[in-house]
Amino acid sequence: MAQKARGNTTVTYNSNAITNYVTQADMERTIDQLETTSLGDTAKTFIAGDADNKLTLSGNWTVALDGFLAPDAGSGTKRTVVIVYTEGSSTVTYTWTASGSNGGEIENYAIQSPANGLRTFSCDLKLSGAPTRVAA
Predict the structure, then answer these.
(1) In the chain, what is the straight-line distance between the N-terminal and C-terminal CA atoms, in Å?
(2) What digits encode the pLDDT tens for the residues 1-43?
(3) Which of 3, 6, 21, 135 has a Cα at 20 to 30 A from 88?
């Protein structure tokens, strides 16, 4: 059954719950496809490679949110990132724990200030390493 995202998705960055600032959280997992075609094959063949993970966030900008994200923008600092999807009584949690070269790093951070609209933000988190995935 389809599930609304509102109230059923939570986002945590560096142990800070930022869900109340986020209006959209898109997780993208792109899997490399490695070509294994040999001269004896009659068509291309492939195997799965490594995953490239990114979390794109957007929402309502506040000074509090800026305090969580802005200090890390451009710093190269990796932080723990958690996104939880809930459907009824079931949840799936993806966690990238900051350790060594693993974790989430702010790839892009922008603040939009239209003269006739709401001040918003957008942020791309490049996620290094494999996530811990827990389904409950």
Answers:
(1) 17
(2) 566 667 789 999 999 999 999 999 999 988 888 899 999 999 9
(3) 21
Residue 44 CA to chain centroid, in angstroms? 32
Structural tokens at position 34: 């490695």
Q: How far is the C-alpha of 94 from the C-alpha of 51, rounded, in Å?
A: 14
Q: By the 8 A CB rule, do 127 and 104 touch?
A: yes
> CB 39: neighbour CB atoms within 10 A?
4
Q: What is the pLDDT of residues 74-102, one digit of tens each?
A: 899 999 999 999 998 999 999 999 998 99
* Predicted TM-score of the model (pTM): 0.85
Beta-bridged to residue 11, according to DSSP, are 83
